[in-house]
Amino acid sequence: MAHDQKTRVLIGKAGLDGHDRGAKYVAHILRDAGFEVIYTGIRRSPEEIVATAIQEDVRGIGLSVLSGAHVFLFQRIIELLKQRGAADIVVFGGGTIPPEDAAALKDLGVAAVFTPGTSAETIVATLRRLLDPRPDSA
Amino acid sequence: MSDSLQSLLREVASVQAGQSRAAARLMSLVADQPEITPEVLVGLYTAPQHRLLLGITGPPGVGKSTLTDALVAEFRARGPARRIGVIAVDPSSPFSGGAILGDRVRMMRHASDPNIFIRSLAARGRLGGLAGGIAATVRIMGALESDIVVIETVGVGQSEMDVRNIADLVAVVLAPGFGDEIQLLKAGLLEIADFFVVNKADRPGAAELQSALTSAMPQQTAFLVSATKNTGVPELVHHLEGLTETNQTDWVSQRSEKTDLIIRQALVERAGNRLRGIAEANGLVCDLLGRVVQGRQSFDDAVQELLIQAASSAAD
Predict the structure, then answer these.
(1) What does the alpha-carbon distance between residue B168 and residue B255 come to, in Å, rounded to a whole number?
(2) Nearest chain A residue to B101, by CA
(3) Contact between chains at A57 and B28 (C-beta distance less than 8 A)
(4) What's this model's pTM, rounded to 2 decimal places?
């Protein structure tokens, strides 16, 4: 039964910087593309983000990081997801992330990294591909 | 019923409250397919249930999420072992069908509290201020051993009736600066309240709003609260706990009547759908039509024959 299945995605900011324009921009383009976006706001700990992602049953977690602490934050989130048996949740990110770090993040298991200037179309198309509805949904 | 629904139901019914992933999955399934609500109600029929289901409604911007956050903090402070569920409903975009669910932003201090389960839902075009399948979502919160469940509605004014039908108590939240007394009287929102909360008590006009409410609706208490400063919140929670104690027996029987009604209606509706399917598929209705219009068979006989034929094809 394919019903009104919506793809749910968490968008938030971890770490200590408070610049949320990028996160809000992505939340808006995803809403306009038909996603249900759970927006968590700024300065969230990895623990808060993972607990929220599980309760909200999202397919993906998107984090905007502008503080330079991205490698640590993503690593911690991926580790917590594994601990909680939720490694199937797709993690992606964006922000001021240097290319060499983007490669390191992908090695950690971050599925996509959107650097400044990525078009809305690219973001939506990439996430549609990464966040396909669950095959096991009835 | 699909295998994944069955196994999720089993998992949720046997869940220790800390393990919430299956419950979260089941909530998604219900949001996508509200018609499985009766199956969930049956599957969790004997699961634990909440003691209080509090509905919070009111116009946009009055501070419903902030009040919910403050109430949750106060409930938790009074009962360290207590579990609390929050269901926060936000509107879906009528254009894209997408949604930004942002009520959690005001509740993030509870995000890593294992005793609090917060779920955001999109209304998905449904009128009435709640989301489809909400009765099942509430039941799942109960199965997670939530003592108190708070539902925050969309809050778009005059279409917030759903919460009246499901909640044990409904709080209508208002704040000064949202129109005068006449606006209040015509709003159509006041009648669904068991009590009022005048939020933003620190702002000018709050006391006037409280007395206007008291004279318009003398049966319902109007509480003066500042959710951000936590004034008036302990008194409100004390009041709610008293009501919960007094009314528990009545609420339990009202809830079980509502549950049974949903299941009963679903049984009849599904039988009706199958009957229609069978009647159309076999061309049975066309045959009967012919005989009825030609006067060869009475209307009542045709109905009787339709039921008998459908029953025998359903049994195949």
Answers:
(1) 9
(2) A38
(3) yes
(4) 0.91
Contacts of residue A91, Cβ cutoff 8 Å, sequence gap at least 6: A60, A61, A62, A63, A74, A77, A78, A81, A109, A110, A111
Q: What is the DSSP letter of B194?
A: S
Q: Which of B95, B100, B103, B121 would best serve as a mutation to test chain A binding (most A beta carbons within 10 A)?
A: B100
User: What's the token pair of residue B121?
Assistant: 């839902």
Percent composition of chain A: helix, strand, coil (DSSP 3-state, to 5): 40, 20, 40
Contact B98 A34 (CB under 8 A): yes
Give residue-wise pLDDT tens across range B243-276. Answer: 999 999 999 999 999 999 999 999 999 999 888 8
Interface test with B, best of A10, A11, A39, A80 (most B CBs within 10 A): A39
Taking only residues 92 to 121 of chain A, the set having a beta carbon closer than 8 angstroms to any beta carbon of chain B reads none
Q: Which of B99, B104, B118 sits opposite A36 (nearest CB)?
A: B99
Whether residue B131 lies within 8 A of chain A, CB to CB, comes out as no
Q: Give residues with Cβ within 8 angstroms of B264, minimum separation 6.
A: none
ipTM, 2 decimals? 0.90
* B51-81: burial string, b at 16+ Cβ within 10 Å, e else: bbbbbbbbbeebbbbbbbbbbbbbbbeeeee
Could you tell me the pLDDT band of residue B311, with boundaries at 50, 70 and 90?
A: confident
B111: nearest CB among A5, A48, A138: A48
Residue among B24, B98, B124 whose CB faces A56 most closely: B24
Tokens of B6: 């069955």
Reply yes or no on whether the pLDDT at B280 is more than 70. yes
Give bridge partners of residue A8 from the DSSP assignment: A36
Q: Are A18 and A68 in contact (CB under 8 A)?
A: no
Please give the Cα distance from A64 to B16 (Å, whole number). Answer: 34
Q: Which residues of A touch B65 (CB under 8 A)?
A: none
Q: What are the start-end ranges of the E strands in chain B? A: 52-57, 84-90, 99-101, 116-122, 148-152, 169-174, 195-198, 222-224
| Distance linking the first and last C-alpha atoms of chain A | 6
Whether B143 contacts B48, CB under 8 Å: yes
